[in-house]
Amino acid sequence: MTPRLDYFKAAPAAMKAMLALETASRQQSIPTALRQLVKMRVSQINGCAYCLDMHAPEAREAGVAQQKLDVLAAWRESPAFDARERAALGWAEALTRIETSCAPQQDYDELAAQFSEAERVDLTLIINAINSWNRFAVGFRSQHPARTRGDDR
C-alpha cells in the first residue's frame, strides 16, 4: 500500500488542531491503561494498522497485560476485563459504529454505572480523538514501520 500524502505537511494548521485535541484527551481523568485499551479497540474496528502499531507498545508501557491485548477483539467473551473496562469498550464500540448502533441505552447505562459524568465526557473525547486519527491514517494510508520478530520498541 502506498501512502497518499503527508497530512502534517499538507495542512499544518489542521494537524496542530488535531494535536491539541490529542493533548487534551491525554489530560483527562481516564487512566492511561484504559485510554490505551480504548484506542486499541477503536483502531481494530477501523482497521488502522498505523494506530495499532503505535498504541500496542504504549498500552504495554501503561501496564496493560499482553493477554488483554491478545484477546481485545473478543473482549465480550473474555474474563480478562473488569466491569469498568467492559463499559468503556462497549461505549467505544457504540460510538465508533454509531451508524448501526445509534449509541444504545444499554451501553450508556453500563457506562453511567461505572463512570462519573465528567469521566463519561472525557472517555467520549478520547473515543472521538482516536476515531479522527484513524480516519487520517487509513484515509491517507499512513504506514507503520515494519519490524523484525522480537523488536517491540
UniProtKB/TrEMBL annotation:
Q: Does the keyword Oxidoreductase apply?
A: yes
Report keywords, A-Z: Oxidoreductase, Peroxidase
PANTHER family per UniProt:
4-CARBOXYMUCONOLACTONE DECARBOXYLASE FAMILY PROTEIN (AFU_ORTHOLOGUE AFUA_6G11590), CYTOPLASMIC PROTEIN
Extract the GO molecular function terms from the UniProt entry: peroxiredoxin activity
Q: Where is the signal peptide?
A: none
Q: Give the InterPro entries listed for this entry.
A: AhpD-like (IPR029032), AhpD_core (IPR004675), CMD-like (IPR003779)
Q: Name one Pfam family in it.
A: CMD
Q: Which organism is it from?
A: Paracoccus alcaliphilus
Residue stretches making up the Carboxymuconolactone decarboxylase-like domain: 12-94
Q: What is this protein called?
A: Alkylhydroperoxidase AhpD family core domain-containing protein
